[in-house]
Amino acid sequence: MLAQGVSLMLIGCGRHATRTYLPVLCDVGIGLRSIVVVDLAEQLPEIRSLLADRFGHLAARAAYVSVTGRDARLMSESSVLPPGIAEALDEARRQHSIDRVLICTAPDSHLAYADWALRRYLHILMEKPISAPMHLRTSVQAVGRVWSDYAYLHRLLIAQRRAQPDLVFNIMAQRRYHVGFQAVLGHIQQIADDHGVGVTAFQSLHSDGQWRPPFEMIAQDYHGYNSGHGKGLHSGYHAIDVTDRIVQLSQSHRLEPEVHANFVYPGDYLAAFAVRDQYGMLGQEVSEAEAERAEEELAGAQGVRYGEVSGHLSVAYRDPRGRKTSAGTVALLHDGVSQRGWAHAHKEDLYQNGRVRQESHYYASGPLQVIQVSANEGRERRQGNMRGDENSYDFVIDVYRNAAAMKGELPYQRLGIGELYRDRGLVMGDPMKDARRYALLDFFNCIGSGRTSSTSDYTSHESTVRILAKMYESALRQSDHSQYHRFDTAVAVPLPHSAP
Ligand SMILES: NC(=O)c1ccc[n+]([C@@H]2O[C@H](COP(=O)([O-])OP(=O)(O)OC[C@H]3O[C@@H](n4cnc5c(N)ncnc54)[C@H](O)[C@@H]3O)[C@@H](O)[C@H]2O)c1
Fold it and tell me: In terms of residue numbers, what domain contains 404?
């Protein structure tokens, strides 16, 4: 529960904050004294009426700080806030005795807001990704920033913890809080503890089940491709993060990941599923000339290099002596099976356009154990007008153990998500929504009990970001866009993990 009299700042009150943060803050918000909402000036009228209509409890306690489009642009190009915005936030912070912030803007301003908050010793819960530099497909500098942006905040956090060791900085990585993934990790750690074998091989697949037809690929900014990145910095972050965490926590040493990436870009994708074929299935006539224009645009004719639709990663982990102790693949798909059957999107909304998520994971602990996870959303859930059953999210874990070598073990066991909730005395809603809620509560509990998070502290995202940086580096190496300069030495520089 929130402590009495908590005041917080919500920076960025868009789709995700509305779906995830506001309901939780309302639920447990009896003690919420005030909430300062920071957003773009043009969005604030809509946000005010949304709060009044749907979150009255919060509306009564809300104050607002508006950001101009010019300031938003400035902060997207810098690691610090423009002075005017910093002053406005400082004023709101003093007036409302703010000690914590939730950063939920588009990723291009995460860095500047986190920098502002850290320097004032404010506790932070921030959305993934850490940053999303423009032109990742083509620019060596942009790719370098995936790592350097992360490292900048990491060093600043460690420095600030010198004066305030319990300063909380968490990243919203809900799978780390998911009851199913926690059970998987528990089984894997048990084998590691009892027999000294961590994950030796893995295969993970995460599909968003979106169908983003070509004109939307060109025009849509929201979770778009037109800034030069795609799936990797959208939900790809979560898929990499959960795999990396399970592998790393199963081993006794910190491992260094090596990555080879194969990316499929929109121009490639049209070779597999042509413009007119797509729109034909979606019931919209598209002329040959229009199709050709879309193809040329997505192939980069106007100079925009669109980001990845999917990424297929081969990942190997080396121990401190350089030996590969674990290796596998991670497939990141935006384009697995979808439930979309209409040409015109309902707003720019990920969730109302037939998106159905599908995941599978395979983790082998040598010859002793294999765990297979199958997590699928939306058997019945056809979105838009046919909004379906929220509980149609399956999460099944099959555990195979070597019962001949490990006496007393079951050779096979199936764990259902309902059973796992029951075992922990929890009430199941939608497991992924529950996980986000647990992430928020962890943030509040950490602050309340004066400790940093053992689940999603900022510093525990280092290896995830190394993989992201190396993934974009690998993709860029294969492209014809730049003479490649080595920067992986920068990624390899060890970061401090506690105050010097
Ligand atoms: N954890 C998850 O599963 C999950 C799911 C969806 C989105 N996200 C992340 O949440 C973040 C927000 O995503 P979203 O879907 O809500 O996007 P959104 O575009 O709907 O919302 C972003 C909000 O931030 C505001 N904003 C943008 N720039 C700003 C700035 N400089 N200063 C103040 N406000 C600004 C926008 O006006 C908007 O209201 C992103 O980082 C995204 O990756 C995470």
Answer: 177-430
